[in-house]
Prior knowledge:
Number of domains: 1
Active site: 78, 141, 165
Function: Removes 5-oxoproline from various penultimate amino acid residues except L-proline.
Shape: globular
Subcellular location: Cytoplasm
Subunit structure: Homotetramer.
Strand content: 15-25%
Oligomer: single chain
Amino acid sequence: MKILVTGFDPFGKETINPAWEAVRRLPATIAGAQIVTLQVPTVFDQAASVVHAAIVREQPDVVLDIGQAGGRSGLTPERVAINLNDAGIADNQGNQPVDQPIQADGAAAYFTQLPVKAMVAAIRAAGLPGYLSTTAGTFVCNHLMYQVQYQRAHEFPRLRAGFMHIPFLPSQVSARPGVPSLALTDDVRGLTAAITAIVTQIEDEKDA
């Protein structure tokens, strides 16, 4: 089994993005699955193009995209992506779409194929904060989650894909009193636990 795990580059006023910092520290193999990592730009459309090229190149069984969600207190697998770009800030190339559909012929929403509740349970079993999220927002994170699902629907029907947000790092909240954060080592442990849950679910389905 091969799993493509992506993480965004820094955006907004941040100089670091915990998503990529955690993703690039993942081991090469988790629960017997090969892990391929990829940094993606926080840019509408371009992010999806980069991931699409990686899917064609690597032929993964699973794509798990990771993004930063400042203000959240735990690792949060996302249940659904919606067909909407509505950016409160500009992306890294100055794009700031407002109330625009992502794909004119796409579904209003796509649900993930990943076992999000099992992922949350695995994160919590590792002693880390985790909870299920129903919305990935309307910025580039949701855009990428939606676009990969759209690609799956039209090109890669056997692919399983999903998205997970992780909190700020402690260094990002030093001047933000009361804003939650999570250590990078915990991010890596949490991602590893979630990926293990994905592999376990797929293997159990094969054995059923």
